[in-house]
Fold this protein.
Amino acid sequence: MKKIQLMLPMLCCILWVAEAQTVGDGNTSGKVWSLEKAGTWYKSHAWISGANYIPHTAINQLEMWQAETFDPETIETELGWAESIGFNTMRVFLHNLAWKQDPDGFKKRVDNYLAIANRHHILTIFVFFDDCWNKVPQEGKQPEPRTGIHNSGWMQDPGDPASKDSTLFPVLEKYVKDILKTFGQDKRILLWDLYNEPGNSGKAETSLSLLRKAFQWAREINPGQPISAGIWAWDLEAFNTFQYQNSDIITYHDYEDAEKHLRVIQLLKMSGRPLIFEKTSLSASPILIPAKGPADWPARCLALMSADVLNAQSKILALAPPPALALALAPW
């Protein structure tokens, strides 16, 4: 609770600055969405429920998207299961190396995935960059899973030290802008999550420059979908301030118990912007799934998780979603 109390003055300051920046923007091209535009966007969508998704045949983003291991048959099956238990949104990680190998082929596979998801009435949140887990991603064959090791083969994007090497930014800019130009008006995409947990893996503020650039590049393309980057660690004040002020929709991760999580929701709602809860941990919070569904929904839900997660002590509750807060629920 002390952490929540310490957060309040910082968040109030962020709220004041953010409001000062957005008042009177008139939804100008390349600017943060107004509260009115963000609210209208949110009201146009059904209740958002789903998962962070990767097919069980892929150890990481590269294995999901590289031509040799892209697996539309498994994606078709698993998104069918997701639809059957009431999910309508998937948060899916891209990877710049898969694009770099073959930009046109990569975009065709992204389009193929979107076509499959659309058949199952599922929207997608795409994630560009990520500071979590293994530091040095490589093209080609990916590592084999290590039993009992959470996210044993997951790769950062662009990696470490790549995320702080500004000489690589021009290539990353081309990647982000190419994807946004191609899919920036695609109604099958719910929103763009520009950076997953920036500053994680001990990187601290060394990732702030790339985060800023990612927002700059996205604003220059000005996609029709909102852009965001989820707040996830309250001690990373420089990140939180920037993410809060520059996101069209507030997305966040929380790994605390329900009482502390409620305080976070109450604070973030002060922004006046829609909230999307993207990630939690299996130990901190239950995984919520719709109350209605087929008799074998627990097995289907578990099948949507990566092999690493099946070794965890997961708690699954059948709960109907409340009517106020959008959730994109994380199975890992």
In short: The first helix runs from residue 2 to 22. Residues 1-6, 15-28, 285-293, 297-332 have pLDDT under 50 and may be disordered.
